[in-house]
Amino acid sequence: MMMTLLYVEREWQASDTRKFGIGNISLANGTAYGEHSTHKSGLEVDIRPLRKDGLPIPVYWYNKEYDQAATAKLIALFRAHASVRRVLFDDTGIPFVTPFKHHDHHFHLELRA
Ligand SMILES: [Zn+2]
Fold this sequence. Notes:
Layout: H1 2-13, E1 44-47, H2 68-81, E2 84-88, E3 97-98, E4 107-111
Parallel strand pairs: 2-3
Antiparallel strand pairs: 1-4, 2-4
Zinc ion binds next to strand 1.
């Protein structure tokens, strides 16, 4: 997971100066993580979509500040680098994503072991 995040961050910074937000991965002992039923294996991570203004704050995919093209590019970078099993995100205008409740201000990325 960390290699994937660091690799994609390097690739991303080569073409865009905005930072992307990385959220929950898992707890060290793999126990339940708040309201998540997943995030126990270290192979799942929540990532914020990109904002047009680049501010490091949340954005929902239906807000005007949401940058769909940049978010699609970021998801494509993850897919190109890592063995991505699934991406849960409610903006179905982006290829390969699966809508899932409460995934309107972050996308959930699952990697294969
Ligand atoms: Zn998640």
